[in-house]
Amino acid sequence: MQKSFVDLLRSNIEYLVLIGLAFTSLISTVVTGAFAAFYFVIITVYLAIHIAVKIVLRMLRKRFPSFFKTKAFWRVGFPTQITTFILTLIAIGLLGFKKEFGLTLQNTNEGLWLFLSLGLPFAILYSVGAFFFLRKSQNGNMLSLDFLKNPTDRKGTVVYTFTMPGVGEEILYRGFIQGYFSANITGSILLGSFPLMYSTIIASTIFILVHFYTMGETVAETLTQLPGRIVITLILGITFQLTGSLIFPIITHNVFDGFLVLSGIQATKN
Known about the structure:
two-stranded antiparallel ribbon, 2 strands
């Protein structure tokens, strides 16, 4: 029973997040008395991107079946991130390229400091932990990493993770979702003397929920990884909040994922 529930949750996690957003919009409307239309803008854009990615991947699989014959995620990753980037950019353009979306290069000194003091050290620390976690999980229920033993897929995965995940995901989750929430929701909670914006909290929560079961792990393995995923998500969200630019969240995201892949490569070696 538990396995079937987890499989159902894993395959429908994006839709459950959208239902949660719709429910949150309903509660917000009832409490404030004002229709929270911006929730449904985010739901519409996210759903459109999700459907478009599936259509693009289906077309590519029919056109190039041999290219997608392995489980190497970089083969679906490139078209997924490119599609996400293009459609999110179109949505941002239709909404007027507001400054909240972070399509600018500013506060580079602060962004570099955040990357060197938070992003990079945590990426290294997490990748070391991931090495032992993945090594132990190779005989468990984790997604098979055997494709990393193939030279072509190993190189493709390294190139992909160090260049692409942050491009598509950061413009969607930080730029569009966090930026759009920050333009419509004010307020923050204090972490000591640091004000963590509601927009950062909401976008980070969505990002964490969508990334449940990304490695095909069990519930126990998901809970084990959850603290680390929360930390890196907050680092990305806070970096965007403080700099107002997507450049350093993108860099941090790519470095984080790239180091994880290097850990995976080491973990699959005999």
